[in-house]
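Researcher: We're reviewing a set of sequences before deciding which ones to prioritize for further study. For each one, I'd like a predicted 3D structure that I can look through quickly. This is catechol O-methyltransferase. If possible, include the structure in token form so it fits the rest of the review sheet.
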Amino acid sequence: STAALIWNERIREKIINFIMNQSKEQRILNFVLQNAVRGDPCSVMDTIDKYCSQKEWAMNVGDEKGLILDKTVEEVSPSAALELGTYCGYSAVRIARLLKAGAHLLTVEFNPEFAAIAKQIIEFAGVQDKVKILEGPSEEIIPQLKKKYEVDTLDFVFLDHWKDKYTPDTILLQECNLLRKGSVLLADNIIVPGAPEFLNYIRNNPRFQCTNYPSHLEYMKVEDAMEKAVFLG
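Model: Here's the predicted structure for catechol O-methyltransferase, in token form for your review sheet.
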């Protein structure tokens, strides 16, 4: 089962962390610095995918669901994009490489260690001019976006943080008037680990039009999916 797979990964990860005295995320960063081409976002993404499919599983969006993310970003062509859950910066690099001139991505990360690693990966990929990492809890940062970070409205939002935050943060984005007619939300991992509350909320909300994209859990043959929700205003 998926639970067993991820459980095994976590146990194994703790043992390796102890032996090597570093985190898996530091190992991913080191692998990128040693093997990827500086200034080449695709090389950075491929290197992370290679590490996570061959060496240690990690919760990046991955290459398969990454194509759904790419397609959505290309369709929206956002000027202002928000990502909730930076992790190691994989999806931030993936989004940033597709942004048009003058567009920018704000990415929110609660874990300081992940934020520090993501910063290095984003810089190594050469997309740091398009990405700003905001460190802290999403429920504190979202209400600051307009005043502190000069966001008018968001064209695209990628939800990939704690699954129980998907619904409250989507509600918060609306309450803070950060969504406009046509704003697109894309949510990852709606089957594994799953976001049933979010699906229930978004699919039964007349203000959103939803599309489901079946896929697989990153680097595994386990079924997962992404959900796209267009804000109708």
